[in-house]
């Protein structure tokens, strides 16, 4: 039986930081309005870097930390909804940037659940026994799909990337998982619609910008995602008290507060960093994981049990319980 483990973590964010006060200069909003409703105080926005640039920085950090050559990688998966292009994939660009000539690479599109979906996929690749090492990266430049005249969405999102190195292991580190999709509610959160434009079709317009029914997404997170988390814990044969930390998608501080009450866990077990980054979609969980390791909250010694849960467009949700 083959197993996989998270052996290294890393994150990267653009140097440019935009505060709520900065946003108040270009739209009808304020620091109090944004922070009281979301917990967000600032966000990093790309100035001259693309999604693949951010992901490449993370990949380079992971290789350096592990003292690995890029030639030792078997695969690279990048979770993103803001690729540089539809082809080549963002992962292929990263593969070229770091010189990982032996690795196959592809993108995973599952919005804010993307990193969890990709991590689950990477674990299965290693568990197959065919592959030994791979990078799982969440990377986003959401600033390019936000309508900067819409304060309802523009204040929420930021750019950044985070990721992990997965390696083969001799014992089980991935304990349980549950993933789901409900396409019937997909129109509640949309982005990047490409219309028909050929001379042989009825022309339909592109809808580039992100659009969201905030109340519907809030209710979805509190109801469906909380249930998914509870079901995953039950499937793991653990108790809620056995989970050391819950690393949840960083969409809104109110959601985290509601989740804590619904799950019956201390809010101290649910770290947050959306106040510094905003919602970075597929990058939010790996950025948070990397920061928690950097700050000594989580270690990589294999003695902590961590729950990762992402939720967002699709609608999608995914939960993993891992020993780290």
Description:
- With 324 residues, the protein is an alpha/beta fold.
- It folds into two domains: 3-171, Thiolase/Chalcone synthase (Peroxisomal Thiolase, Chain A, domain 1, 3-Layer(aba) Sandwich); 175-194 and 205-323, 3-Layer(aba) Sandwich (Peroxisomal Thiolase, Chain A, domain 1).
- It is 32% helix and 24% strand.
- The protein contains ten helices and 13 strands.
- The protein has helices spanning 20-24, 31-38, 51-66, 90-98, 114-127, 151-154, 214-235, 253-263, 274-277, 284-294; strands at residues 3-12, 17-19, 42-44, 75-79, 104-108, 133-141, 159-169, 174-181, 189-190, 211-212, 245-248, 305-312, 316-323.
- Strand 12 and strand 13 form a beta hairpin.
- The relative contact order is 0.20.
- The mean pLDDT is 96.
Count all strands and give the number.
13
Let me know the average pLDDT. 96
Strand content: 15-25%
Largest sheet: 5 strands, mixed
Known CATH architecture of the largest domain: 3-Layer(aba) Sandwich
Count of alpha/pi helices: 10
Alpha carbon gap, first and last residue: 19 Å
Shape: globular
- Structural class category: alpha/beta
**Strand order of the main beta sheet, please?**
1-7-6-4-5
Low-confidence stretches: none
Following the backbone from N to C, one meets helices and strands in this order, namely: EEHHEHEHEHEHEEEEHEHHHEE
Tell me, what is the CATH class of the largest domain? Answer: Alpha Beta
Might you state the CATH topology name of the largest domain? Peroxisomal Thiolase, Chain A, domain 1
User: What is the CATH homology-level superfamily of the largest domain?
Assistant: Thiolase/Chalcone synthase
Q: What level of helicity do the residues show? A: 25-40%
Radius of gyration: 19 Å
Total domains, how many?
2
């Amino acid at each position: 039986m083959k197993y996989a483990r998270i052996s290294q973590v890393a994150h990267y964010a653009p140097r440019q930081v935009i505060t709520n006060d900065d946003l108040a200069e270009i739209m009808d909003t304020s620091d109090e309005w944004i922070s009281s409703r979301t917990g967000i105080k600032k966000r990093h926005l790309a100035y001259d870097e693309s999604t693949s640039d951010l992901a490449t920085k993370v990949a380079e950090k992971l290789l350096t930390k592990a003292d690995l050559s890029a030639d030792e990688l078997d695969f690279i998966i990048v979770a993103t909804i803001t690729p540089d292009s539809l082809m080549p994939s963002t992962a292929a660009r990263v593969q070229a940037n770091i010189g990982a000539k032996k690795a196959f690479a592809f993108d995973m599109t599952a919005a804010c659940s993307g990193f969890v979906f990709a991590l689950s996929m990477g674990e299965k690749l290693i568990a197959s026994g065919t592959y030994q090492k791979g990078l799982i990266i969440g990377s986003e430049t959401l600033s390019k799909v936000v309508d900067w005249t819409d304060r309802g969405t523009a204040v929420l999102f930021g750019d950044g990337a985070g990721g992990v190195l997965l390696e083969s292991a001799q014992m089980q580190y991935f304990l349980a998982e549950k993933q789901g999709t409900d396409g019937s509610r997909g129109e509640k959160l949309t982005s990047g619609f490409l219309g028909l434009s050929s001379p042989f079709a009825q022309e339909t317009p592109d809808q580039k910008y992100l659009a969201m029914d905030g109340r519907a997404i809030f209710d979805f997170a509190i109801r469906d995602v909380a249930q998914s988390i509870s079901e995953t814990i039950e499937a793991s044969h653990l108790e809620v008290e056995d989970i050391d930390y819950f690393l949840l998608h960083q969409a809104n501080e109110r959601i985290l507060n509601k989740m804590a009450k619904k799950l019956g866990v201390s809010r101290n077990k649910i770290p947050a960093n959306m106040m510094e980054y905003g919602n970075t979609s597929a990058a939010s969980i790996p950025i948070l994981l990397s920061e928690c390791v950097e700050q000594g909250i989580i270690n990589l010694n294999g003695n902590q049990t961590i729950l990762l849960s992402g939720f967002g467009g699709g609608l999608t949700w995914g939960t993993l319980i891992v020993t780290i």
